[in-house]
Amino acid sequence: MDIAAIIAKAENTHKLAKQEIVALLADDAHTQEIFAAADRVRRRYVGDEVHLRGLIEFSNTCRQNCHYCGLRRDNTNVVRYRMEPDAIIDLARKAKEYGYRTVVLQSGEDPYYTVDILRHIISEIKKLGVAVTLSIGEKSRDEYAAYRQAGADRYLLRIETTDRLLYEDLDPGMSFENRLRCLRDLRSLGYELGTGCLIGLPGQTLESLADDILFFQEIDADMIGVGPFIPNPDTPLAAAAGGAFTSSLKVMAIIRLLLPDINIPATTAMETLDKNGRMIALQSGANVVMPNVTEGDYRRHYALYPGKICVGDTPAQCRSCITGKITAIGRGISTGHGFRLRKTAQE
Ligand code: 5AD
Ligand code: SF4
Ligand code: FES
User: Fold this and answer.
1) Nearest CA to ligand 1 atom 3
2) Domain-by-domain residue ranges, the chain?
3) pLDDT for 344 beyond 70
4) Which of 65, 154, 205, 229 would give a disulfide with 198, using CB separation of 3.0 to 4.6 Å?
5) Residue 98 above 70 pLDDT?
6) What's the confidence (pLDDT) of residue 30?
7) What percent of the chain shows pLDDT beyond 90?
């Protein structure tokens, strides 16, 4: 296949057939052209501003047992923590003071936080005037509805992989069907919907990554976060190969070409594999960064994978670090809430 023609088609029509996506993923000779095209589409549709989201990792306790994740319940090497509701609200207040207009509340699937507790946390944080994103896993439709009513604006729930068999193999006790049900419920309850996948899972094929990308288009996701799978020594996948930086960047860039107006974060896992990874991602299709505002030892204990960046840094250090880096690549920091602005036609 003519790779240059496929890139041009993606840039101009934002539509590709599965085999065309596979051809891009399989090709090693045109990666820079793919990144450049994604950078142009990013600028044309979502502009030069970067949206910052302050990330609060409020509990690393999880009832699930995903094979790839350091927070899985069978991992006894993790020091488990839970932040008290008031401490979470205080941290959100600090996030606002650092200038973040969105607070992302992330945790393992931790039943300690009941619907009433979460409703309280969400409604208190909403009083600060920030957008609230939840990333707390699979819940019932009623629970999602309650959080939405309390003011939550967005929800992140990665599909991880659209390969149903691989998903159920790597996430024991979880069903692909329920994952889809969650995403559909979130969508119909009016959340901005964020999902995404891991890249480089054992057994994952290029065909399956192409399916992931087509799935993101099909469910009309508002945000897509992707990152390399980084093997964690405390998990059953300790000896796996893991994902590569360039393939992750390529999947991300193709997502920008095919979903031109969505929000795409330059993810922390990308920076773990390349010390300039987030800035390279911002120049290859991404327009969002999620700096950590978690304090003290909690950062270190929120160990999904080894080598996570910023574990020894304070929220203030991350804030000035990221501002400096973004300014240095000639981009500005948004002062808005950074909701998806749908654009059907190019300007
Ligand atoms: N490497 C990279 N990302 C991981 N996640 C979990 N474990 C790993 C790992 N070993 C990601 C999952 C999850 C998100 C919160 O962290 O995609 O959705
Ligand atoms: Fe829990 Fe999420 Fe890790 Fe799975 S990926 S073990 S649900 S924190
Ligand atoms: Fe945390 Fe750079 S963003 S130190």
Assistant:
1) 229
2) 3-332
3) no
4) 229
5) yes
6) 97
7) 98
Cβ(338)–Cβ(290) under 8 Å? Answer: no
Query: Which tokens belong to 149?
Result: 């009513």
Residue with tokens 């559909």: 184
pLDDT in tens, 222-270: 999 999 999 999 999 999 999 999 999 999 999 999 999 999 999 999 9
Using DSSP's 3-state secondary structure scheme, residue 126 falls into: helix
pLDDT at 115 over 90: yes
ipTM above 0.95, yes or no: yes
Asked if residues 315 and 103 have their Cβ atoms less than 8 Å apart, the reply is: no
Distance from the CA of 135 to the center of ligand 3, in angstroms? 21
Over 90: is that where the pLDDT of 319 sits? Answer: yes
* 264 Cα–ligand 3 center, Å: 19
Q: How far is CA 43 from CA 24, 237, 255, 262, in A?
A: 21, 38, 14, 12
Question: What whole-number distance in Å separates Cα of residue 114 and Cα of residue 116?
Answer: 5
CATH class of 3-332: alpha beta
In 10 A of CB 86, how many CB atoms? 11
Distance 165 CA to ligand 2 centre (A): 18
Q: Is the CB of 158 under 6 A from ligand 1?
A: yes
Can you read off the two tokens belonging to residue 331? 């981009």
Would the CB of 58 count as within 6 Å of ligand 1? no
CB of 104 closer than 6 angstroms to any ligand 1 atom: no
Lowest mean pLDDT among 128-137, 210-219, 227-236, 335-344: 335-344
Can you give the pLDDT at residue 345? 46
Q: How many CB atoms lie within 10 A of CB 17?
A: 12
Cβ atoms of residues 20 and 1 within 8 Å? yes
Listed residue (21, 3, 40, 20) closest to 346, CA to CA: 40
